[in-house]
Structure formats: C-alpha cells, structure tokens
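User: Please check token order:
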Amino acid sequence: NWAVLQMRKSYLARFVRKVQLSIAWSLRNSRSEPEIVGGFVEENPDISDLSSKLMLLLAKDVEKSGALFAITAIPSKYRLRNRNRGIETIQYSDKWKEWANAYQVKFFDLTAGFEREAAQGRTVFFDQNIHFNENGHRVVAQELGRELSDIFQEVGVSVP
C-alpha cells in the first residue's frame, strides 16, 4: 500500500529498521560468541521449511525442462581459518549436503577442495571480505569441472 511504499523510500525508516534488526540479532545471539572472519559475522542458520520448499520447486521445474539441477554451498571461511579450534556444530554447506541427499538433489561439495588448500597454507578467500580470491575461483572451477567432466566431454571440452 501507499504507506509501505513511502516507508521503503524513507532513509529514516530504513535506519530504524536496521537498528531494530541489529538489536533483535544481538538479543538472539547474546549467549554465543559470533564467528567473525574478515570483518564479517559468519552465520550458520538451519535450512528453513520455506527454503527447502522453494529449492524443491526450483529443482522440479529445472528437471522438468530437461536440464540438470544441482546446488552447492560455500564452505565456512571461519572454519578454514580456525582449523585447530574445536567447533562442534555442523557447517552450513554440510547442512545443504545432507538436505540434498535426503531429497535426491545433486550436490557439488566444495569442502574437500577448500580444506586441501587450507591444509597447504593457501587461502581461497580475500582477507577482508567474503569473496573468493583467484585461488578460490580456481578450486571451484576444478571441483565443478571434475563433477561435470562427463558433460564437458560430451561437448568436446577437456577438463584439466
């Protein structure tokens, strides 16, 4: 409605909403130490029912078209940087891997490739943000190339 449209345009309303969300987040997470890496808090939410339903609908529509539907999730930068620290919870990418297995959705796991690089002292993320660096993109390309090698071979592309 008109009032909601005006609120979306208002910088004051946006600021108030940002403060409200920040306070709600702080209260919700006050009992746990946040996983901060590269200046960002790395969240590890569970997969919501809505996300699960939407992914299944998307998978169904893509497969109905005859295309391959596959998902992947980025491994935890925090865990790669803090390898010797005891972290008991399952990481976000593994939650999606379990979900994919439960619903027979193709999942490309990047964790092993990222962990292999971290074990050799190489980084896959830029230091001050959450994006891949050149090495991270190389690892993703290698992992996807390996997973999709049969498709690449069908079209005559060699995968290193």
